[in-house]
Amino acid sequence: MISKSGYSAFTLHLLYSDIFFHTSLTESLLERLGSERRLTDEVLTLFESRTTHLRSARIRNAGQLTAAGLRSLRGHRITDLEVEGLSKATVTDLVGCLGDWSVKNLRALGVSRCTFVDGSKMAVTVALSKLRNLQVGE
């Protein structure tokens, strides 16, 4: 089902609202969609927290994702996050799209081929109190 939402132009929903994907299936599906370059803001809306559960999220080929689409991550309790190739949003935008629980409890953050600077050349950082591992590549 497709509808308009505040996050992006359109939101995808599962046909049956009582379906719930377990953590391992949700994480595998997210990683697979990224690997196959099929992740868009609209596709990411399928991962709303009432039907899916993410603890460890790996988002490959994130070049099409914006802050609006990344807000779909807000309801999840993510402790490990790896994003590759984010170009339409900054790392600060990414962290800002996470929920309060995730920001307070994020242990590992990997951001390869992602930008820390927006169009105004302003780099903003956020405090991640439990972060134990930060990986920045290329």
**Largest sheet, spatial ordering of strands:** 3-4-5-6
What overall form do the CA principal axes indicate? Answer: globular
Mean pLDDT: 82
What fraction strand?
Answer: 15-25%
Share of helix among residues?
A: 10-25%
Q: How many helical elements?
A: 5
Count all strands and give the number. 6
- Overall number of domains: 1
Task: Describe the main β-sheet briefly.
Answer: 4 strands, parallel
List low-pLDDT spans: 1-8
Category by helix and strand content: alpha/beta
Alpha carbon gyration radius: 14 Å
Distance between the termini: 38 Å
Helices and strands in order:
Elements: E1 2-3, E2 11-12, H1 23-35, H2 41-44, E3 56-59, H3 67-70, E4 80-84, H4 91-96, H5 100-105, E5 108-112, E6 133-135
Parallel strand pairs: 3-4, 4-5, 5-6
Antiparallel strand pairs: 1-2
What does it look like?
The protein has five helices and six strands. By secondary structure, the protein is an alpha/beta fold. It has one domain. The chain is globular. The relative contact order is 0.14.
Features:
four-stranded parallel β-sheet, two-stranded antiparallel ribbon, 138 residues, 5 helices, disordered N terminus, alpha/beta
